[in-house]
């Protein structure tokens, strides 16, 4: 072997040994190593470093100090307690004999989050912001947390909050570059993942606008499931003062604007996870919204928003604010088609009124002022067009208004209000209808089509109770209806006014009574509607109606009498039984003198309206 070859091999061996030595961890004196790193932490951030365990140093792939049993403190208060800490150092500073920390890795750290402007984090945060904004010195390029725990207090309520299992990696390679961050954690029992990119710390710290892209996803199953995602792409700025024309600003602080998207298959569960009273959102199922937004400490505004609730798609504008954990939402939305059938209560077995307790707690924990319009809408079996409606929830009350709707060729308007009482609810209903096609309406509702014609009417009712059965049983108020140019199916008043032997055919199912006008007025008290004025007029005949409608039992107890015609003939019949399928029973027939008294109506003659 030549001398040159021997020297080359020796050099390679020495280099390999040096590389191996530099790659190994060497145990060093912990107090001196901690004091060396602490000088940079104190100069930059005002933090003190104490180490309880051993310390090691590694030169490759990058110079780093490793400590065990670490505490970062401000004065006498510990801000961070970590089982392990890796301090990454800049090579140039190390060669010059000083520490220049470029990265931190904290293992199983317990971090106390700041709890206000006067917290122990205020001074370190202010120093960091000033250095970043000025671009002075080397910056922290990398921060890693492994299985960390964060503790703090909810700024809205002051209650303690804890984030567990936090794994975070933040990279900021150059002062002019953007910050990239990814994290996964568990908060309030729900696992979540966060990613953030494009944020420029220097611009943000200087009060300038910076781009930002962020995505958050969360998912948990069980009785209190919370699942969903949120994405934003826009700009972020820290405003020193609140803009005068920004209703959502809420004071100095961060302002975020741009395009955003939010989606969840279970809105009540997600809001409960966030600590927000769901209010009317308790009724909602899968929800998504996307559009242009502007957010500040006081809330968020959507000047352009698209909302999807179940199969309903709406567009418009809205805003939301949060104060002391109470969510307030306003919005004006429009849709081509709305299906509100999911908001209807399930019918009771047997068709009775529900005795389940009624409460507004799940609806009035938040505030809502919503204006809706739709080209067409469906509520259960009922179809409507050209709908304008509103929903107002505030201070223990729920008020729904129907500004207008076209139902079966006619116009419907109304207002319903519910308010909390010490022993239940107070309910009020007002409404009017004009030119409604009764035959089509009954067909939509699945009711027997026993009367046809164009109807108009009004209603004003109120009640109080703890269940739907209570409310119906205590109804009071007035109602009136008029039907023009219609007919009654299953009954022929003309035949009934004829000879007694023809009375049986008057009650056949194929009978019809055409009329010019039918009207009825009701006075309701204690769940019983008294028929005050009822009259049917047409075909040379006039019939009057009296009796009662028992709303709680859904039963009729009425009597109709045909007023005497020119020949003195008359008739009477009872309308009894379930209000949707009542039985029509003849009462008596007044016969003229020439008619034989022995010819009477068979006792078994009766019929049912279809």
Automatic annotation (TrEMBL):
<dbReference type="Pfam" id="PF05170">
    <property type="entry name" value="AsmA"/>
</dbReference>
<protein>
    <submittedName>
        <fullName>Membrane assembly protein AsmA</fullName>
    </submittedName>
</protein>
<dbReference type="GO" id="GO:0005886">
    <property type="term" value="C:plasma membrane"/>
</dbReference>
<dbReference type="InterPro" id="IPR007844">
    <property type="entry name" value="AsmA"/>
</dbReference>
<dbReference type="GO" id="GO:0090313">
    <property type="term" value="P:regulation of protein targeting to membrane"/>
</dbReference>
<dbReference type="InterPro" id="IPR006311">
    <property type="entry name" value="TAT_signal"/>
</dbReference>
<feature type="signal peptide">
    <location>
        <begin position="1"/>
        <end position="20"/>
    </location>
</feature>
<feature type="domain" description="AsmA">
    <location>
        <begin position="360"/>
        <end position="530"/>
    </location>
</feature>
<dbReference type="InterPro" id="IPR052894">
    <property type="entry name" value="AsmA-related"/>
</dbReference>
<keyword id="KW-0732">Signal</keyword>
């Amino acid at each position: 072997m030549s001398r040159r070859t021997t020297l080359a091999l020796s050099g390679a061996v020495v280099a390999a040994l040096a590389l191996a030595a530099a790659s190994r961890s060497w145990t060093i004196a912990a107090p001196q190593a901690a004091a060396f790193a602490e000088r940079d932490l104190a100069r930059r951030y005002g933090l003190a470093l104490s180490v309880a365990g051993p310390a090691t140093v590694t030169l490759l792939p990058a110079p780093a100090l490793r400590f065990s049993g670490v505490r970062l403190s401000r004065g006498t208060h510990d801000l961070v307690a970590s089982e392990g800490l890796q301090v990454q150092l800049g090579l140039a500073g190390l060669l010059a004999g000083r520490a220049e920390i470029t990265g931190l890795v904290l293992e199983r750290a317990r971090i106390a989050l700041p709890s206000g402007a006067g917290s122990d984090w205020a001074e370190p945060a202010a120093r960091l912001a000033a250095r970043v904004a000025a671009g002075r010195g080397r910056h922290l390029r990398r921060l890693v947390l492994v299985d960390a725990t964060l503790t703090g207090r909810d700024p809205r309520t002051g209650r303690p909050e804890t984030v567990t299992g936090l794994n975070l990696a933040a990279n900021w390679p150059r002062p002019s570059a953007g910050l990239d961050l990814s994290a996964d954690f568990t908060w309030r029992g729900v696992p979540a993942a966060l990613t953030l990119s494009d944020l420029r710390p220097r611009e943000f710290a200087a009060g300038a606008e910076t781009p930002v892209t962020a995505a958050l996803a969360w998912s948990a199953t069980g009785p209190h499931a919370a699942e969903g995602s949120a994405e934003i792409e826009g700009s972020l700025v820290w405003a020193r003062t609140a803009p005068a024309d920004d209703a959502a600003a809420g004071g100095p602080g961060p302002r975020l604007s741009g395009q955003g998207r939010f989606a969840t298959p279970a809105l009540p569960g997600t809001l409960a996870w966030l600590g927000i009273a769901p209010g009317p959102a308790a009724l909602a199922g899968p929800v998504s919204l996307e559009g242009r937004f502007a957010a500040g400490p006081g809330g968020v505004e959507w000047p352009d928003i698209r909302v999807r609730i179940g199969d309903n798609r709406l567009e418009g504008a809205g805003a939301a604010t949060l104060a002391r954990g109470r969510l307030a939402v306003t919005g004006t939305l429009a849709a081509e088609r709305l299906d509100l059938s999911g908001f209807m209560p399930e019918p009771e077995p047997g068709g009775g009124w529900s005795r389940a307790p009624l409460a507004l707690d799940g609806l009035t924990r938040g505030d809502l002022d919503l204006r809706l319009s739709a080209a067409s809408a469906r509520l259960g079996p009922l179809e409507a067009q050209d709908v304008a409606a509103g929903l107002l929830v505030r201070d223990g009350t729920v008020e729904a208004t129907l500004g207008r709707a076209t139902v079966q060729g006619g116009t419907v308007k109304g207002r319903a209000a519910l308010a909390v009482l010490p022993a239940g609810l107070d309910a009020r209903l007002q409404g009017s209808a004009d030119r409604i096609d009764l035959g089509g309406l009954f067909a939509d509702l699945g009711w027997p089509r026993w009367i046809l014609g164009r109807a108009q009417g009004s209603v004003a009712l109120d009640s109080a109770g703890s269940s739907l059965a209570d409310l119906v049983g205590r109804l009071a108020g007035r109602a009136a209806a008029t039907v023009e140019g219609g007919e009654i199916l299953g009954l022929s008043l003309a035949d009934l006014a004829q000879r007694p032997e023809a009375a049986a055919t008057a009650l056949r199912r194929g009978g019809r009574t055409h009329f010019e006008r039918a009207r009825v007025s009701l006075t309701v008290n204690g769940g019983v509607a008294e028929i005050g004025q009822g009259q049917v007029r047409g075909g040379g005949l006039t019939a009057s109606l009296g009796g009662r409608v028992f709303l709680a039992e859904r039963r009729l107890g009425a009597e109709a009498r045909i007023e005497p015609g020119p020949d003195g003939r008359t008739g009477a019949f009872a309308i009894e039984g379930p209000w949707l399928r009542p039985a029509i029973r003849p009462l008596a027939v007044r016969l003229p003198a020439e008619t034989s008294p022995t010819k009477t109506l068979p006792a078994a003659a009766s019929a049912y309206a279809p």
